[in-house]
Amino acid sequence: MGDRYTGYQRLEFDYPEPRILRISFNRPERYNALDAIGHTEITYVWREVDADPDIDCVILTGKGKAFSAGGDFDMIEDIIDDFDTRAKTWKEARDLVYNIINCGKPIISAINGPAVGAGLVAGLMADISIVAESVSLTDGHTRLGVAAGDHAAIIWPLLCGMAKAKYYLLTCDRLSGTEAERIGLVSLCVKDDELEDKALEVARKLSNGAQNAIRWTKYSLNNWLRMAGPTFDTSTALEMLGFTSGEAREGVTALKEKRDPNFAKGSPL
User: Which CATH number belongs to the domain containing residue 19 in this structure?
Assistant: First the structure.
């Protein structure tokens, strides 16, 4: 593996087969929730992947029972309390999406459990997303009291259409793996015990394919996402603005207390 992937603290790397790299969120005791270290690592690892001449395809998954449970409470509270943290997180949120878009290697996500926040970003921004039947997905931003930023505005309408995107992003209702596949939010839904094998099967097919043709096809298709860049940049900025509000403080408190949030009625907008 060399030195390229050494020094990571929240991600684990292995090669299930030659020229196929598997990246695993590796904080199973916290359901792979991302702290500041993990958020930075999942943002910038894609630049290493893009530059790696020894791999043709990537599988992204989670260790244990979760894919990634999003940002941990300490990280969210730091975003709320500190401007510099908020600004850094905004930059990383943008870089995460654009780094995945611009990574030349095809990325497969094997979503094996709860996927929230930056974990859901990576899972749905992957070129091919495969979800286990038992998994339920939710964006969760408006329940937290902030605008649906991260990745929602750039890709949900393309994947599942504006009507479904608005419904699930505004309500934060959960989608089963089966329903996520039915509406086009993910590429495939498979039985839980078939997820790992299916991801490897698809990775093997891509790794054995014509690399220039596959990478140029990805590049061309991702121009749809690049065109939506200004919309996405606005959504992440509004998400960060929301972290300065009382709604975000109530949202994170409700999550910690495992209750429904009690948001104030009305808005000056």
Answer: 3.90.226.10
DSSP per-residue string spanning 249-263: HHHHHHHHHTS---P
Residue 265 inside a domain? The answer is: no
Rg (CA), the chain: 18
> 93 is in which domain, residue-wise?
11-197+211-257
The string of pLDDT tens digits covering residues 16-53 is 999 999 999 999 999 999 999 999 999 999 999 999 99
Q: Three-state DSSP class for 52?
A: coil
Per-residue DSSP letter, 28: G
Using the 8-state DSSP alphabet, how is residue 247 labeled? H
Distances (CA, A) of 198 to 19, 28, 189, 214: 17, 22, 10, 19
How far apart (Å, rounded) are the C-alpha atoms in residues 260 and 79? Answer: 21
- 109: which residues sit within 8 A by CB, 6+ positions away? 59, 60, 61, 67, 122, 123, 124, 126, 128, 129, 130
- Three-class SS of residue 65? coil
Domain assignment of residue 52, yes or no? yes
Count of domains in the chain?
A: 1
pLDDT in tens, 77-126: 999 999 999 999 999 999 999 999 999 999 999 999 999 888 999 999 99
Burial of 143 (0-12, 13-18, 19+ CB in 10 A): middle
